[in-house]
Protein 1
Amino acid sequence: MAETSIRDYIDEHQHEFLDQLCDWLRIESISADPTHEPEVRRSADWLASALAETGFPTVEIWETPGLPAVFAEWPAADPAAPTVVVYGHHDVQPVDPVDLWDGAPFDPQLRGELLLGRGSSDDKGQVAFHLLGLRAWLAAHDATAPPVTLRFVIEGEEESGSPHFRGLLEEHRDRLGCDAVVVSDTGMWTRETPTICTGMRGMVTCQVDLSGPAVDLHSGSFGGAVVNPLDVLTQLLAGLHDDKRRVTLPGFYDDVHPLSPRERELFARLPYDENEWLETANARAAYGEDGYSTLERIWARPTCEVNGIWGGYAGAGHKTIVPSEAHAKLSFRLVADQDPMTVRKLLDDYVATAVPPGIEATVHWYGDGVRPCLTPLDAPALQAVTRAMQQAFGTEILYTREGGSGPEADLADVLQAPVVFLGVALPSDRIHAPNERVVFPLLLKGAEAAAYLWDELAQLPR
Amino acid sequence: MAETSIRDYIDEHQHEFLDQLCDWLRIESISADPTHEPEVRRSADWLASALAETGFPTVEIWETPGLPAVFAEWPAADPAAPTVVVYGHHDVQPVDPVDLWDGAPFDPQLRGELLLGRGSSDDKGQVAFHLLGLRAWLAAHDATAPPVTLRFVIEGEEESGSPHFRGLLEEHRDRLGCDAVVVSDTGMWTRETPTICTGMRGMVTCQVDLSGPAVDLHSGSFGGAVVNPLDVLTQLLAGLHDDKRRVTLPGFYDDVHPLSPRERELFARLPYDENEWLETANARAAYGEDGYSTLERIWARPTCEVNGIWGGYAGAGHKTIVPSEAHAKLSFRLVADQDPMTVRKLLDDYVATAVPPGIEATVHWYGDGVRPCLTPLDAPALQAVTRAMQQAFGTEILYTREGGSGPEADLADVLQAPVVFLGVALPSDRIHAPNERVVFPLLLKGAEAAAYLWDELAQLPR
């Protein structure tokens, strides 16, 4: 059958799709608010029903110590076909301040091409388009099963930091084996420039504590003759970067997957206005590692940031003390193939050697960190998404990355499969903010791309 | 007349002196506690009476916007004799925590050689010995007036930071003209090693404020591509010292009066145990400018200290932000002949050039600072005090300085006269702490040295 029939199906069923999505958007599944737990559970039930109606033979509510995820499985007709896990989430952000919304956050409205409502973009709209895409594929192929085995895992705590997601993945690892993971919780560069995200930075964070004199000392009596923990801290932190804004920890860049000339060229082709970006950033000047553009710095280069610092006197007026203690919070954004545990050791070693006698230093790490993830441009799964997007949008597909981290790294890590991103949200969707919205025709494009993707992934080498 | 008669007089009148001092010590003249204002006024009245009884023809209570000072004048018989201003204070520190006192803070007790009680050392005991010294001189010389014109200014707010003292000096400048100022509010190295303080460090303090992005930014979305105010602050502060712990501000040391070989040799002869000092400092290691001993660093070298620092997130766990602001409190300890206003400009210039585009920096100075003061070893007034102390103690007199600042710099500055220090307190006197005490025989030595000093100062070149 011709692909146009997928597009025709989607076009013909868009009103039904809109009605169905709006039903879901009316459910106030705010995971961060404990009083909304029944609504999150209702959202999971709604999704489970919708998956069952679509034809999934197995649909389960997966409980966690917190809020439930929804699992659904539909085996391919061909038992040798690849398996694909689709990730998304059915919980939404809080809606405060409600006053700033033009309408009620949970009374979705289509205004022109824009569908307004909490969750329309992040992430119910992008989970829902998979249902439409799959129906379209089945109708267009007159089939009773998808060309790949599909396993949906749609969690209910993403907007609360996915506290139980890794545990859930580990618990159900044997039921989630797959050849690729498709994440539909990201966006594109602009409507006119459809893109695919190829990676996310990882992260590891810590607190550095320095202690010097047992008590705050009078700087008249002792200043200049004992070590000041704040002096040591500022030297220690300043020493983490050289004058090219590179991190000085020896070997820090050893495992960094360098940007290929091809990737840099593709990034550079994204329509980009630095002044607009600065406005978005509320910043006055771009600043960072020598030799890289702003987008390269955010997407493809690791960082060391001081997130907070404190010690000594911070009240009104002045207090002339040599303080007893100094503290800082640090975070490292990491890129593939940096290992958070390796970076931890680099900083531990640096701190141990950077402090003079008279200072005790400790580094407290917040967890083991989040691994960076990156799908190389030539990865078969990424090529498959690229072709599917090209077919849906009829235009060249470019690439982006994300500077932050999500549960995606856990998917790659626990399931040991390549992660690819199929998302049609836009930076202008106001996710997490009042008046969240989505460009409704882009959800239809997402459905179309998803339908094409199953054929593309069916051909994955196994 | 022989000097021994001064000593004899003091010896014979020591019990009377003790009784008189104890009367004064019973007055609870805590200047920091507003409920004690009547007691501070009673203390001023007590001192005024004592001065009048001693024979001062002019005794006045000098009101300030706060608590009163006491002024007394006794012209020399010879109108051509030099004039000497004597400075001390009649207010005392609070007594909390009272539980830690062995007896009642305002019920003075002589236990062996130690006189216990709030103010016994700081500073009533050291003001009172002047009255005994003067009576001794008059008796020994069978005279009705001192050999120098004496002008006593005994303030009532020193323990509250002398907020109105400079104003008082300026208001009464014409009545306080003098050839030397004798400050009796400092101490000696040890009982066995009598010393004279020759100078105090000055000070100037400020707050540095840096602002970068208009709001805290998500470090995933922006980290590495915008300037982080905390990075700039740590670089800026770390850049204030070189690896020899010298302050890097260009010209910072230009006006520093270098330590003479003679002064270094005299400092080095003070009995000193670095481990004991570290214990006093609650510090684990000595640390400071290369090429100087601990005492030299505290007494004779300027410093730049970070007294406090804050910015970004300092709560539990971590928050991965690029913060919007960064702040620090700085103080410079200054030595003669550094000018606080010159140092202010050096830092202002440094901050202005040290911040990259994207950061706005401001430096807020707390006042004009306190000038350092130093009396050279060969200054005639210091030589006079040295000879007077030698005669009283019968041993060689060594020299110290103080690392902090008091109202003494204002005396030198407003009265434009050399300031010398005649004090017999000891570091073990527990001033400002529970169980304040003084070695009573040292107060008698102080009286004796003061008596000899008037003869010495009478020979000052005018």
Protein 2
Amino acid sequence: MNTISFQGIEGSFHHEVAIGYFGQDQRWLGRDHFGEVFDDVEQRRAEYGVVAIENSNVGTIVGNLDHFERVNLQIVAEVYLSVQQCLLIHPDATIDSITEVRSHPMALDQCRGYLRNQLAWDRIEVSDTAGAAKWIMDQSATHVAAIGSALAANVYGMSIAARSIQQDATNQTRFWVLANESEGVHPGLTNIESKKGSISFETSHDSGALADALVAMKASGWNLTKIESRPVPEVPWRYRFYCDMELSSKTSLPEIVSSLNSLEQQEIIESSRVLGVYPVNHF
Amino acid sequence: MNTISFQGIEGSFHHEVAIGYFGQDQRWLGRDHFGEVFDDVEQRRAEYGVVAIENSNVGTIVGNLDHFERVNLQIVAEVYLSVQQCLLIHPDATIDSITEVRSHPMALDQCRGYLRNQLAWDRIEVSDTAGAAKWIMDQSATHVAAIGSALAANVYGMSIAARSIQQDATNQTRFWVLANESEGVHPGLTNIESKKGSISFETSHDSGALADALVAMKASGWNLTKIESRPVPEVPWRYRFYCDMELSSKTSLPEIVSSLNSLEQQEIIESSRVLGVYPVNHF
């Protein structure tokens, strides 16, 4: 049994991902803020952390890239979740008794098509989908529905009045599993589809250094899939670049470290880091 | 006289930038949301719009990149503002009578060092720095201070009790001036320091297409300074890339369009757009 730190409370989408990856039988540590999850793992209060890094509609959660500069952790797996929103009600309630719906603003927005048929319902925005579910049970609020995960219904003993009520069937979220050690720690992984790597670096001040760096990476056989620029603190308009790459199954972490070292010696990049070399898993 | 649409109310940092660029004698159209500024210019309710695109500490305001996909506008200038936060009080107040401070959470955070010496003050978070200033005057609230710009003090007739109280002297924000036409429209520009261009594109599905695209751009003499990946709506994990580039003074917009067309014909990139070729101005 491991201790797993995640953002949110039990029944949240982070908790759903963590159960899918590690199984039910773990010690769960739900946190209000992403930064606490990074700290839990680095300070060994938890063996693993689970954090969302990107949503296919909304984009990157850039604050979680920035946390990597504070703590020295490794990404040990990437996990994808297709967000399935459900309408959750008290077990003594029926859908006809509902006059109010509560959820996170993003979840309410994702279900705007469904809610257009329920115009009489008041909409209350709260900070957490699972928190809305828990509140209904704590208050025995039979007139209120929550929008959240099937897991939240399970955790809090609620009825699911409707399933898959989100507007966009393609909405997915990408999560990273974090640990202190770098390789060989994928306890929950049964279905490895591909291998990826993530790195961060700054470039030299030379014109065209970023293009040079990406060319060298392509020559190493790394297929760059995504790049983000994040500000370097207190140095206006200097950036730290975050790259995700598809790797061949035989590319190893030491090989990537060595390629980055060589780019540093050529003064194309500086302050490079490998955030992880990891398998990819879909539920 | 032109009509200038900007985010915020009179006295906001956007208004400060717009006055610096266009001068005082304009028609001002303050808006709650950035999207309205884009719409105002496209629908010709305003000749120009002013929107923040990036802060040197916080990073890019990615929603404003996304707005470019909805509307067909051009960036006609880039303007930098060093954020100077002031403590603003009612002209009948003294600093000793203050028991509460109001501002935007980001402004309160930027002034955390100054506020550490004023622990007895209650802190109230509001959505708008200039709005906090206006509220104090509307309410004749002599016990409340706002954190905001010197311009807000001027607009609302307030006293400046302290200047430059922000923590980080390097904090700058980068703004874009938007218009329908592309070139030759820089009415307020007196001090052109350099020339930049911004483009957006998707890449082909080929491995390494992004590196190929950046190499071709480097060969054209464009110095890539920044790149962002934004999700393509409803196509999970496809990205639209936004690049800012430093250009030589003689690089023209048609030249960039022609280079991008050539990359499209080679099937390296697709759906490319030039967001603007524009001069850079610091206040």
Protein 3
Amino acid sequence: MRTTFLTFGYKEIQTPTFEHVELFTEKSGQGIIDELYTFADKGGRNLTLRPELTAPVIRFYVNQLQMEPKPLKLFYFGNCFRYDRPQKGRYREFWQAGCELIGTKTPEGQAELIALAYTLLKDVGVEKMQGALGNLTVVRALFNHFNLTQEQQQEILPLIDKQAFDELQSTLENMGLPDEQTSKLLTLLQTTDISLLEQALQKDKEALEQLSTTKKILELLSSSFGITSFTLNMSIVRGLDYYKDMVFEIEAPALGAEKQLCGGGMYDLVKLFGGTSLPTAGFAIGFDRTVLTLETEKYHFPTCPTHVYVIPIEEEMIPPALQLTQQLRQEGFFTDVDLVRRGVGKALKYANTQHIPICILLGPDEQKNNTVCLRDMNTGKQTTIPQQHIIKELKQHLKHQ
Amino acid sequence: MRTTFLTFGYKEIQTPTFEHVELFTEKSGQGIIDELYTFADKGGRNLTLRPELTAPVIRFYVNQLQMEPKPLKLFYFGNCFRYDRPQKGRYREFWQAGCELIGTKTPEGQAELIALAYTLLKDVGVEKMQGALGNLTVVRALFNHFNLTQEQQQEILPLIDKQAFDELQSTLENMGLPDEQTSKLLTLLQTTDISLLEQALQKDKEALEQLSTTKKILELLSSSFGITSFTLNMSIVRGLDYYKDMVFEIEAPALGAEKQLCGGGMYDLVKLFGGTSLPTAGFAIGFDRTVLTLETEKYHFPTCPTHVYVIPIEEEMIPPALQLTQQLRQEGFFTDVDLVRRGVGKALKYANTQHIPICILLGPDEQKNNTVCLRDMNTGKQTTIPQQHIIKELKQHLKHQ
């Protein structure tokens, strides 16, 4: 993931593990306190373990980076903490990989951001993903178009967020919205046809502009980035107070119920934290869920096994065995050496349990003749080779593994 | 550092950021609480941000890894927290790289551990280091040899730890230790000549055994690992309750007052945490101090600069520019693209401030002819090249940077 971020021109940023609790209540409201690990330090400061990384990164930007040329592309990989009921894909300490794009709101800027999220997950090995692109300005325009009061909006938002459209329908009917209107709103919230929305909102200039941007983003994703798995979806209403305009999500079907892998969009925190307002966007990928997805998809996780195990066949051979070990390490081989004097038989057995492909045995005869005995643990074949050929031999043997 | 750990046959381990507070008070006594970030969670558990990583790793070992073949080689890289007065090289959140070697106490095991600490720092670029090797069993034997009471030992330990030998001398005199004995103890605590210690402690079998191991460790470090910067030093008395037998430290003169980069030794925590007792050793490297050392030594830190900046010279060129950008990224180039439509002149200026060595300009003529204009930002030279040669050209240009 780090490499992918770097290829997209992003730079890594690290922020502290705890922050003043106000940083997060200012962003997300007092309601978030129930989910936070808060504590007072010995100086009486109200601190909290960070529940996410966007607020800390933007605080850092406002304090230290406002004079940097724009756009600023910052990525992070860090642990976060939420006092939540632990379950599959939801841990109290969890890891997020994410980024913030500060200083642009062009369609190409937004498309690149979404393409980055998708590419991160694809490059790391996730096979099946589904992306959805929404827009909160358009959702607000729909609410106005159907004359829903602020109170009514608050009531139906959680239902839209859960995609509970049956429940939404009966709630809208209970609110007194005519059947025809209810049915139209439900269609517009679920349609993937942008022209239906343009038609419905043709008098709302701001909404039309956002729909035009949305269209351009989808075009660029498909034509320039080759990403066709994003569809229009106006029922994405994540954090209506916090996000504005574009929002997007990526889900992995492999995850089942908790299937969201990534969420993001445009937001406006800089001004709230005392900086000069400018367009900002970002996303966060749930790292633990990414691992769960890969596990479910039977991804073959790479391991870092030891390449070589060096066995001194008697006590006097320990110093030259260590010296040889150190030489192999300097050449970059992952090399272990018997440190418990277990004897040749047990040492070979140990190497076997550890799936180490090659053992090197060093006895007095080999030492005298400047040779070593190299044992291929897969074939069991032992060959005596001159010490000066050992690097070459190891490289050849490991290439064939 | 990760690579060096892997070449030594160590595997990475990660533990949670917070633990039950008892984990650390059991290891280090109630006194440590003043330095801890402790808090009660919403379930009333007494938790603490980890102040170090040895106790968490050994807890993990006892819970999960006791059945693994020995020796077990585990390394970590993690953040720790101490409520300390912040100063240069001492932060309230700081990073440690370290490891635990579980299940061997052979001289070769101990020598390899020390060699690993030294190699980690050397490979990462630290130039000047001084290592010291002590032994707490020998120190205790010295105290017994001079008939110092438990109370007297407690009084002089902090002075030895600070290497405040003048103050130590007057304190010993005040305790009524004869001048000759005081002078002899001071000599033995500071000598680098192991035979002086062997002579003084010739009746203490346990101490003699430890001195023999110490000698072997120093020999192996020098002959097998090529490390000659460690000297004998019995005034290393770090954590007398916690460590046992071998202890070692590595200092960087570049750091000034807070010059310790690494500390470690043999200890016995497994039994305390309810596991089956076995020899354990480990060390921790202060990562922030390592960075400070490298800064003081004028180390040239590697950067990850963007390789290429793609500039669409007009709005219609944005989609093909994004497509080209994405191709370059897939080839592994760190590629950025103008996302704010700043115009060619400003875009080139931006690339200059970011020290990006190559710009690619894409206009309608280039697009029509399947070419791009490649600008070398160091020479200012622009060349028009076919799009299918771009990867080859970029590789050549970047090789010459």
Protein 4
Amino acid sequence: MINYPIKRKVQETVLKTTSNRGMDLEDAINQTNQYYIDNDIAYIYKKPIPIVVVKVDYEKRSTAKISEAYYKTPSTTDYNGIYLGRYIDFEAKETNSKTSFPLKNIHEHQVLHLKNIQKHGGIGFIIVHFFKLDRTFLLDASKVVEFYNRKDIGRKSITLEEFIEFGHDVKEGYVKRLDYLAIVKREYF
Amino acid sequence: MINYPIKRKVQETVLKTTSNRGMDLEDAINQTNQYYIDNDIAYIYKKPIPIVVVKVDYEKRSTAKISEAYYKTPSTTDYNGIYLGRYIDFEAKETNSKTSFPLKNIHEHQVLHLKNIQKHGGIGFIIVHFFKLDRTFLLDASKVVEFYNRKDIGRKSITLEEFIEFGHDVKEGYVKRLDYLAIVKREYF
């Protein structure tokens, strides 16, 4: 059980009050994925948020109302799908910071998940949006695992410089809001 | 909003009272997937159940309690993952019937989802367990789409004979409870 929805709210508030040019990462990715689907480019979709249901009220058979439930720590990533026959899997995150992405924003199970995807021949990565800088990066799962593993012995974040050096800039566009598959095609095929 | 959890409960009760040899399909698949993961054969996992959250109570920051939510009609399938570099996606269903599988157990969006998976080079299918017969079949997505499309003009189910003719028997085992990837390997590679 985690405080996922509160964090999310805080981020959105900051985004909307500090920056008019700010992009909502989830919206941008969802719109891009819809563009990919509509144009038969790829089929990538968002997974449901994991929730543990404790109590369900059955007033009548057709309307089951969940009256007690909690957010679960996610064990997989937000997005997955298929592109040119390859398995695609990624997590998308925003950060307030201008200098680094805190590793506490990613859960250990999600890192393990990305590692498993790569082990079995899939393409895994994270997309991180520094919204105060208006910059977005794609970082390969192998680098995510490497940086995550130093968490207990040293730095607890991935620096902006590391994103610049090891990641790939994802440019914001108009029709394809965030064309991350252009990078996937260039880097993984 | 659907009556998903009630159906599930009813099914489980029937399963447990009418048949001691009866297999719980979800358990069998989850155990099999764990076997695949533990032995580095494949990485296939269950997606969260889609829930729409209406009301969240924040008593304190660390415990967000969802106090009103509803089950959503699923737009994708239950399981997906990766096997020998290929995208795998399927829905698993049980039926009480001894003669056919009613198509109302599958939603239109799930059929469209399977169609999209195939279009982009993935492997999609359904696994259907006739528990009164103790038989389980794997049926390719193309056949699911074909049978689903006749729903409005004719038969509203897939018959047992059709599963026998166009599907593949999945045998129940001990260590690998339901080794459906043996069929996937034989039929799709």
